[in-house]
Each structure stands twice: as C-alpha cells, then as structure tokens.
Amino acid sequence: MTGQAAGCIVVIMTEQDRAGPHFADRVVEAQKRKASVVVLGIDPQLDDAAAKGLPPSYELGKFCCEIVEACAPWVVAAKLQLAFFEARGLEGMRVFAEVAAFARGRGLLTIADAKRADVAHSAAAYAEAFLGSGELGCDAVTVNPYLGRDGVEPFLQRARADRGVFVLVRTSNPSAAEFQDLAAAEGALWEIVARKVADWGAPFVGQYGLSSVGAVVGATYPEQARRARQLMPRTLVLAPGYGAQGASAEDATAGARADGLGLLVNASRSLMYAWRQSGLGPGQAAALAAEKMRRELQQALAQSQTRAPAR
Q: 287 lies in a domain?
C-alpha cells in the first residue's frame, strides 16, 4: 500500500510486511549485499543562531526523505533520532512515521533512537510504540538499562518477533565517564552492563552468531570498544560518534569481530549536513559523503583483519 506525504512517497506496511528473519541476520545479510556497515542517522537539527536546521525551501519531510533516497545505496539502516522529531510536535512525529516508512520502502532497516526504559508496564507501552505494528514501529530501538532487567524485558520480548534492541553500554558523549566508568568489584559500571547485555542476548543468537539484543558503544572510545567486544562476543554493536563527533574509521571499527561482522557505524550530521561545506544539493552531498564513509570503514575493517592474530 502506498501513500503521498510531504516530500515522501511512503509504503504503508502491515505487521506481516514488517516481519522477517532474525534481526541480526537481516543486518548481516544487508551488510554483505552492500559491503557496508554504515548507518544513516536522521537528526534534522533545530534552528539556532548559527544556522537553520533545514535547507532553504525544504520542508522537514522533503529534507529527510531526500537524504534517505540519496544514501540508500551505501547504507544498511536509518537511525531516526526521536528528539528532533518530538521537538517539532505533532508535525514532527507525523514526519517521523513517514520517513521510517520511506526508509523501509528503500530496503533499509530502521532504528528508533528513543533511548527509552521505564517500570515494566510503561516499558511495555514504549516497546509497543517503537517495535509494534503502529505508525511509529521500527525494526529496532535503543533502550536505557538504568532501571535494570524489568525496564528492558518488554523490549527483549520483541526480539522474539524479529525485532532488534540496542542497549546503551558505553556512550560516545564526553561526560559518559562520570557514571559509566565508576569502579565496582566486577569492573567499571559499563562493563557490568556489557555482561548483562551479553546474558540478555544469549537466547536471541542467529545463524551468523550474533544476537538481536545489541549494544550502543561509542566510536569515540576505541579502547573501551575493544574491551566491549571481549565481554560481548556475540553482540551486535551500534557505534555512534563517527564524523562530527570526531571518531576516525579506525576508531569506529575497533569493536568489530575478527571476521569483520558484529558492527554498525552511525553518522548523522556529517551526512545530513554535508551540503553546508560542499556547495552541492543536500542529497548529492550526502550521497558522496556516505559513499566515502562506506569506503573508509571497509578499508579500516580490512586492515584490522590483516592485523588480527591467527586463530
């Protein structure tokens, strides 16, 4: 079923349409088809004193969908940051749903970057919102583990229905260490969370040896990313921080498995706003930036596999 939205021709999908194989297997198969680990972050910035969030003459939906269309050949997933849609009110959330549907229609997996969690009954409602069959439903969602297992369990249950969950483990922001690096008897707090994520994900491992219960581990901290891989050998890692936040391709690939799998690398502003530095249109500039990112990450992965000790 198709529909016309502002700037997007969207495919309206049913629960059966969205259902598919195991989430982590779908990720790996998409990566193999495109020789890519790139995730396009959809973060339509708000206006500030320095710049407008949208290009001249663009509406929100047109801008986001043009970027998705242009980058689709080079990326495996689109990660939609809820904050920038929620801040725009009802219209923003309507566009969120349209852009997610548009990305699925272009063959991309969709990740709702919601960072949600709550007491069990509220967490169940969040899980229904972002992993269910409604307008906001996506293939995967990011969640916060601070409430413990009962705040995460409703999301984990959706992994049984071929959805993905990315639990915040070691984030990319500068002040992450204030809490995440606190020492405990079992190691740093983030390491304790990493072990929990590995345990939570154990029942959801697919044919490629990766779980649909993944982890967010910032690309800006490569040493922690290597340690995270030791603690979570079967976990699919989503690594934000490449590009505008300063992580290099070598930093971003530090958390990959020895076979090059188990990693998704997100970039948002460096793709969506490449047009500001290039003089090209938003879509054309984003496509060139995404292809360059894909190539650099593949080269870094190949080099890391060459350096990896033989097993």
A: yes
Domain count, the chain: 1
CATH number at residue 85: 3.20.20.70
Alpha carbon dihedral 185, 186, 188, 191, in 10-degree steps, equals: -170
25 within some domain: no
Q: Three-state DSSP class for 32?
A: helix
C-beta separation of 215 from 167 below 8 A: yes
Do the domain assignments include residue 6?
yes
Question: Is 19 domain-assigned?
Answer: no
| pTM, 2 dp | 0.92
What is the per-residue pLDDT across 108-162, written as a single tens digit (0 to 9) for each? 999 999 999 999 999 999 999 999 999 999 999 999 999 999 999 999 999 988 9
Q: How confident is the model at residue 9 (pLDDT cuts 50, 70, 90)?
A: low
Q: Which domain covers residue 55, as residue numbers?
A: 2-14+30-306
Distance CA 161, CA 119 (A): 22
Asked whether 304 and 88 are in contact (CB, 8 A), the reply is no
Amino acid in position 158 = R
Does the active-site annotation cover 115?
yes
The catalytically annotated residue of 32, 52, 79, 115 is 115
* Longest pairwise C-alpha distance within the chain: 56
Separation CA 83–CA 69 (nearest Å) = 22
For 48-78, the pLDDT digits (tens) are: 998 999 999 999 999 999 999 999 999 999 9
